[in-house]
Amino acid sequence: MNAAFGTTPLPEPDPGPGQDPVTGQGPQSLSPYRLFKREEWAQLRADTPLTLKAEDIERLQSINDPISVEEVVAIYLPLSRLLSLYVAATQGLFKATQRFLMAERETKVPYIIGLAGSVAVGKSTTARILAALLARWPNTPKVDLVTTDGFLLPNAELASHGAMDRKGFPESYDTAALLQFLHDVKAGHKRVTAPLYSHLVYDRVPGEERVVESPDILIVEGLNVLQPARLPRDGTAIPFVSDFFDFSIYLDGHEDDLHRWYVTRFMKLRQTAFRDPRSYFAKYAEVPEDEALRIADHLWTSINLPNLRENILPTRQRASLILAKGASHRIESVALRRL
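Structure for Pantothenate kinase, as requested:
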């Protein structure tokens, strides 16, 4: 799985206006991140080959989340190269530790990548593009992708607690089950299952499972995956999802853009998925357009925006890498946590 694409050193970024690229406050010299403009980051591709065709990229993108071949080349090929180096280093450290412990049998430990960000920022497209690139490394590593949607509590349970309008907030997940899943994956279990979620019916699919079998790399995508553990008063640490990650990515966007992308996606879905009579949102397919716009705006303002401000955005600085999108979905800058 070691895809040695070269070892070109990372250049020092332009210090810019003297502000932290993440918080926008204080001197950038004190930031834990190194900021790269799009053009600077693109140069780090080195000789990493593009292994996806234009039709592959089109197939992998989500609705209302345009992505071009140029975007993959400029942003995701350098990221793929960086991850190849990180994975190889992690594997080397693990093998050295096994030798130190004189372990008789080496257990396969997957490299886990967490991907966080707001609703409508394009996490699904990013996760699928990244998974496809990683799976095409030399030696063809096995790459799997899981979203935390499957660990949302069933709608019936949320409704019984009057919490359907809190769906997607941290308390709406079966955190214990998600932690057990990640523990089993990281422990090297050969077959681990996760609940299957349907965006069509907006709920778990009873009796259906998502099977993960001994991946080399696992991408875990979700809204709140970077939230830190909470320490109880007795001082006993409770692990959280991010504790299992080897590398983490936050996909960032301005609030106004996220709002616009969410509403635009909602209106497009009215013409597609919402027209399926099985859809949870089928009731919105036939309402007048102006009413649909008001509904989408209300859903964003009352649910998704508070979740972003209270739970998702505060975790941004915990990411290993921040991909910042501009108004057109184009990633304009990259912030890499200093080593």
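The chain is about 35% helix and 15% strand.
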